[in-house]
C-alpha cells in the first residue's frame, strides 16, 4: 500500500544544496573514501553516502529503497513491542502510523539523511525493546550496529549516548526492583552495554582510520576536525563590542577584531566583506530577517567556503592546520588581554543565551506544531530554477531516478506583445514563489501586429513569441506570465488569467500601459491522474485530528495510570519502553528548540521526522496501559474480589 502511494514520487534534484544533497551524492559516487578532496568532500559522515552507493550497486531506485528500509524498520519496531506485551491491535496500528506518517511522504523526496536516520532510529528503539525483554547477546549486537550506523549518519551523536544512559538507568532500576535471579546486572545490563559500546566505537574507529588513510585526518569528519572546531570556538568566544541581535553570535565587529590580532584570519576578511560573505549574509537574512552579519546557523559553512576560496582547502591536513593557526593566534590574544573573552559552552550555543530566554516558548511551540502537518502534502518536481543539467544527471545516475516522474511534460504558449513606450526585452513564466522561470529573448516577426496597432505609434515587427510551458502535477501552468521591458518594468499576467483570447492591454497595478499582448494558442498536454493523490490528501486531512484525539485520550489514560499508581508495577517492560521513548522524543525536541532559539528558526519537518512516529506510538501505548489500569480497577471493585465486603 505504501509503495503504491509513493509510486508517483521521486527524489528532487537541487543545485543549491551543495553542502547537502550534492555532497552526499558525490561521496556516494566514490564510495566515500575514494572521493577527491574538496571543501565538501569529507564534510559529511559516511553512513548515508554508503547507503546511496549500496542502492546504486543493487540497481534499486533510491526513492523505493528508502521506503523499503523504513517499512522494514517500522515492522521491527512494532514486532519488538509485541514481545513486551503490547496488544496485537495496538502494534498493528503503530506499524501503520509509522509507515504512513504524512511528513515522510515528502521528506523522502530529498536526498538528505533524515529519512535514513529515521529508519535507523526505529531499528535502535526496536533493539532496546528486545533488550528489555530478554537481553540476549544477538539483540545487543543488533542494537549496537544500529547505534553505530546512527553515529556515522548525523553529528548529534550525544543524543545517542544520552538515550543509552537512560536505557541503562531504566534497566538497572528494573533489575533492582524485580530481584529476578535470571536478570542479574551482569547478564541483563553489563553484557549488553559492553557489546553495544564495543560495536559502536569499533565502527567509529574503523571509519576514522579509513578517513586517515583517505584524507589524512583521524577525525569523524572535516566538519568536526580539531582545528576547525577550535577556530570556531575561539571566534565564538570573542566578546562583541556591542550587543548583537538574535541569531547573530559572531558579528562583523568580532570578525574585524579577530583580524586585528590574528594574521592568519586576516586573510579571510576580504572574503567576509566581499561577494561570498555577503551572499551568506543575504541567505541568512532571508531566513531570519537579520539586518547585519551572517546568521549563526550558517556561519560555519560561510567560514569554510571563504577559506576554500582563499586556497586553504587543497588538502584536509592543510585546512585543519590553517584553522588551528587561527585558534592558536586568537587564544594567545585572549591570554595577552588583547581581546575580551566571554565564556562559551559550545560553538553552537549562544554565549549570551539569557537574551534568548523570552523566545524559548515560541521556538518550542514551533517545534510542537510540526508534529501535525497542516494542509496538503507537497509534491515536488525538478525545476530548472534550482537545478542544472549536470546536477540532474548526477541525481539520475546515482539515485536511479525514474525519468517519467522527475519532470512534468511541458506545454507550449504562442502569442505576441509590444509596448510603444518601453520595448519588451523578454517574455517568460515565473513561478509563484518568485524564482526565475522559463524565458525567451527571441521575438518572431509578426507583420500583422503593426498593421492593426500602427495608430499607437512605433510598433516593432518582431513581437511574436513562443514559450515552453512548465506544467505542475495538476496539469496547470506552474507560474505567472511575465513581460519584462528593457528598462526593467514588469507586466504580470497571473496564472489564472493565462488563456488564449483577444488582445489585452498591458497593465501595472491595474493601470493600463501603452501596449498590448495576445495569447494566440496554449497547448497543455494531458497529465495522467495519479490515483494516490486523493489517498495522500485524505491521510493529511485526517492526521491532525487523529493525533489530537490520541493526545487527549493518552492524557486521560495517564491520569488513570497515576490514580492507580500503587496497584501497578512500574518496573514492567511496557513502562520501561514508555519512559525511554518519551526521553528520545524529549531530547530531540529540546535540541531543536535550543537551536531554533539561537541559531536558526527551527521550522523544518525533516529534523523531527525520526521521532514523529515514536510520539504516536507513545500515545497508543499509554492508552493501552490506561485501559489495563481501568480493567484492574474494575476487577478490584467486583464482588468476587472481596474488597466490597
State which percent range the strand residues make up. 5-15%
Q: Major sheet, described briefly?
A: 5 strands, antiparallel
Helix count? 25
N-to-C span: 55 Å
Subunit organisation of the chains: single chain
Describe this structure in words.
The protein is an alpha+beta fold and 645 residues long. The protein folds into three domains: 2-219 and 537-632, no CATH class; 239-341, no CATH class; 409-523. Helices cover 54% and strands 9% of the residues. The chain is built from 25 helices and nine strands. Helix 2 crosses helix 3 (47-58), helix 22 packs across helix 25 and helix 23 (573-598) runs antiparallel to helix 25.
What descriptive keywords fit this protein?
645 residues, alpha+beta, 3 domains, five-stranded antiparallel β-sheet, four-stranded antiparallel β-sheet, 25 helices, 54% helix, 9% strand, disordered C terminus
Summarize the structure.
This protein has 645 residues and is an alpha+beta fold. The chain is 54% helix and 9% strand. The chain starts with a helix and ends in an 8-residue tail after the last helix.
Q: How are the SSEs placed, and which strands pair?
A:
Blueprint: H1 2-5, H2 18-29, H3 47-58, H4 62-83, H5 88-99, H6 102-107, H7 114-133, H8 137-151, H9 158-178, H10 185-215, H11 226-237, H12 252-261, H13 263-266, H14 269-273, H15 275-288, H16 299-309, H17 316-335, H18 360-369, H19 389-399, H20 403-406, E1 411-419, E2 424-430, E3 438-440, E4 444-445, H21 448-453, E5 462-469, E6 480-485, E7 490-493, E8 504-508, E9 511-523, H22 532-563, H23 573-598, H24 605-608, H25 612-637
Antiparallel strand pairs: 1-5, 1-9, 2-3, 2-6, 4-5, 6-7, 8-9
Helix pairs in contact: 2-3, 2-19, 4-5, 4-7, 5-25, 7-8, 7-23, 8-10, 9-10, 9-23, 11-17, 18-23, 22-25, 23-25
